[in-house]
Each structure stands twice: as C-alpha cells, then as structure tokens.
Amino acid sequence: MKARRSANMIHVETARRKLTPSRPTAPQPIKLLLTANEAAAALGIGRTLFYDLLRRGTIDSVKVGAARRVPLAALHAYIAQLYREVS
C-alpha cells in the first residue's frame, strides 16, 4: 500500500509542476561578436565552408586579442550579398 501512495504522490507533484507557471527569465543580451563555430551554425553551414569564406574574405572577421571573432553585422552583410547575387 505504501508503494501506491508514493506513486500517487509523484503524480500529484508532477501535476503541480505542470500547473505552476515558470518564472520569467531575463532576456539574454544579443552577442555582437561570434566565434567561427557560432557564426557557421547561425548561417546553417558547416565549419569547413565557413572557414573557406573567411579565408577568401567573403565574410569579414576581427581579432580580439588572440581570438578571431565574426561581427554579427558581417553575417548580415553576407546574407545581403547573397540576395543581391540572386537578383
């Protein structure tokens, strides 16, 4: 009988969690400089293609200390360039 009560209590607790509104979280700041992996993921392309675009100068990047970062604006400029090539 004790096992049934425990199982019932678990179901009640699960139901309470579903009914309790979650706390709103603070909005995350928008990153202005992305790593190459983040930028490639944002564009939906692989790392190899992304690094090739960087090497050819198709997408701009900046150095921050020893790290290379891609400005968010550079991704927007690349996408705009793709649209211009289509029309």
Question: Could you please describe the fold and organization of this structure?
Answer:
- The protein has helices spanning 2-19, 36-43, 47-56, 72-86; strands spanning 33-34, 62-64, 67-71.
- Helix content is 59%, strand content 11%.
- The chain starts with a helix and ends with a helix.
- The chain is elongated, with a radius of gyration of 24 Å.
- The chain has 87 residues and is mainly alpha-helical.
Shape: elongated
* Uncertain spans: none
Average pLDDT across residues?
85
Largest sheet data? 3 strands, antiparallel
Q: What class do helices, strands and sheet pairing give? A: mainly alpha
With strands numbered from the N-terminus, the spatial order across the biggest sheet is: 1-3-2
State the helix count.
Answer: 4
Helicity level:
55-70%
What's the end-to-end separation, in Å? Answer: 73 Å
Proportion of beta-strand residues: 5-15%
N-to-C SSE string, H for helix and E for strand: HEHHEEH
Radius of gyration: 24 Å
Q: Report the count of strand segments.
A: 3
